[in-house]
Amino acid sequence: MAISRSTTLLAGILVLLMGIWALTFAAGPASARSWSTATSFGFYSGSPDAFLGQVASNNDQCRSGRLVKLYRERGSRDRLIGRDRAGSTGQWEIERGTFVLARYYALIPRKKFGPQGRHTCRQYKSSTLRFGG
Fold this sequence. Notes:
Layout: H1 5-26, E1 34-35, E2 38-39, E3 42-43, E4 50-56, E5 67-72, E6 79-85, E7 91-95, E8 102-108, E9 111-113, E10 119-121, E11 124-125, E12 129-131
Parallel strand pairs: 1-10
Antiparallel strand pairs: 2-4, 3-4, 4-7, 5-6, 5-8, 8-11, 8-12, 9-10
């Protein structure tokens, strides 16, 4: 039994369409992206009673509204001192009154957004600052 030319052509088209489908749908979302995040970190000079900084990222969703946590280093169990959400320009401030002499750092947790949380704003941990008194 001979295979007709039209059957061979139809089979070839079917294989091509299956390959296109596999590349388009089976591989998952190819457009998932990840953005870096950073923050400046400091305190008011003179009689400091607050830490402040500014979240930086190339993506507005990774800057505006980002959660910022301030920690005091305490051996193996660092202590959460305060938290704030960055404003529309990325600025944040954590007031506390008097800070004890210690080493502090800011942590910006990872954030997922977009359809099915495909996009990611990476976590960032600042360098530590010795502060207080």
